[in-house]
Amino acid sequence: MSDAPAALPLPADPQVLRYLEHVRVEKRLADRTLTLYTLDLARLAQFAHGVNLPLLQLTSAHIRRFVAQMHSAGRSGRGIALILSGWRGFFTWAGRQGLIDHNPVQDVRAPKAPKPLPKALGVDDAVRLAEYDNTGADPWLEARDAAMVELLYGCGLRVGELAGLDAVPSADTQRLGRGWVDLQAGEAHVFGKGSKRRSVPVGRAATAALQAWLALRATPFGGEGSARLDPALFVGQRGARLTAQSIWLRLRQRSQQAGLTTPVHPHMLRHSFASHLLQSSGDLRAVQELLGHANITTTQVYTRLDFQHLAKVYDAAHPRARKK
Q: Within 156-264, where are the H helices?
């Protein structure tokens, strides 16, 4: 169900025309969707003509061959999946009409699209953001936002883990699946996906940023205002726990103020933490533990980022890589 070349003929098979009338009248498809169904079935008819078979005599082997042809011609896995969906609907309808015994598209899947690499900042940009000091900003907001950046980049926390931190652990903290930071021990205790608890070290820069923030955190809520101060480590100006969306917005704004060309989001800092740590240490297992990944294959994606970094170094520095 994706765009096709204008040269494709409309399907002339009477069963296809019956099916298209069926989906137009009974399913009330939008004109655009009906057009895509028509073009995709025209493509299928063209393939069938190439093997000298009527549509209803096609087998799964034929469909897989057609998929391979589309893929080798450069069509994306997602585009092929949409086309297969349209074909599958036609053969499902044909089966209900008693025209075929088996849907040849039923067990055919599109080629898997390669997983996109996680977006990570370069080391210089990440450090630039972490060290950024907006001297003209409200000191309370500046201290809070600086501490959030340090924990996201310095500890590799997920945004939900950051938002879930309490300032001081209480009897409710673990029961509610929240985390906390033990500054004396230099550790952050968080509850990640699947309520899996992990501890990550908090470095000197993050510790200093947190101490500066904690010294100011309660100042706007002294006296009667303290009653509305949430136990959260990171709160807004009304004393309520910051949401993940609020953290996204603040980080995006801060990255722009710091002069970064790429708008930064919290998970980008987590990716940067993992990538930069792996570049320096090469210890995949340690990075897996710090990120809280249940499966090391999830962590291995960062080795691809590391290879990209090495490839760039090679291209820039090796005499045989330089263009004449």
A: 159-163, 171-175, 204-216, 244-257
